[in-house]
Amino acid sequence: MKGDSLQGLIEYIAQALVDDPSQVQVDEVQGGNHARLELCVAQEDMGRVIGKRGRVANSMRLLLRVAAARQGRQANLDIVDPQ
User: Fold this and answer.
1) Position 1 in a domain
2) Which domain holds residue 73?
3) Residue 75 domain-assigned?
4) Number of domains in the chain
5) CA distances in angstroms from 46 to 8, 16, 19, 35, listed in the order given
6) Residue 29 pairs with which residues in a beta bridge?
7) pTM here?
8) How many CB atoms neighbour CB 59 within 10 A?
9) pLDDT, tens digit, for every residue of 3-59?
10) Alpha helices in the chain (DSSP H)
11) CATH code where residue 10 lies
12) 67 found inside a domain
């Protein structure tokens, strides 16, 4: 994991979930005190990252918000469809 960064947290979780960790890519777009992270994984791993009824994705978003709040920031996670 990349230090205490939010990007490193999401990357670590996603790599643990997918079959092909080398395809995990997390991009961070910052705007002041707010960060938006975009997670991209292989097409075959989208179901693992999203989970049934979006439970895995929502859990990742919750962990991200808690970690961001501890740093005095706000953050959102978008799961991007690979192209």
Assistant:
1) no
2) 6-80
3) yes
4) 1
5) 19, 13, 10, 22
6) 36
7) 0.88
8) 12
9) 458 999 999 999 999 999 999 999 988 877 899 999 999 999 999 999 999 999 999
10) 6-17, 46-50, 55-70
11) 3.30.300.20
12) yes
